[in-house]
Design brief:
48% helix; mainly alpha; 3-stranded parallel beta sheet
């Protein structure tokens, strides 16, 4: 039997709305780890942006670069892991992300 995952836009909208109510005036970061767990970081981030999310957190600097390449130019991107790897640091700088 082939398995599939269905992501509901309505559920995303509902969850973002609930998070906003709980967060009050606190900023919300959408955490998109591992290519949004295989669901496509660009597509999921676009849906979240449609719902007003303007801050994203990723674990991999390459994911920050992917978001920038997909047109997420004004959004804040936070790298949520430490690194001392020179190539990671260069990618973080290139993506204008915060580490």
């Amino acid at each position: 039997m082939k398995k599939r995952v269905v992501i509901s836009r309505d559920k995303i909208t509902k969850n973002v709305s609930l998070a906003r109510k709980k967060a009050g005036k606190t900023e919300i970061y959408a955490v998109l780890k591992s290519n949004a767990y295989g669901h496509g970081i660009e597509k999921l981030a676009a849906e979240l942006r449609t719902n007003g999310i303007r801050r994203f957190a990723v674990t991999e600097p390459k994911d920050a670069l992917r978001l920038r390449a997909a047109g997420f130019l004004d959004e804040e991107i936070l790298i949520i892991r430490s690194t001392a790897c020179e190539s990671d640091i260069k990618d973080i700088i290139k993506a204008t992300a915060t580490a």
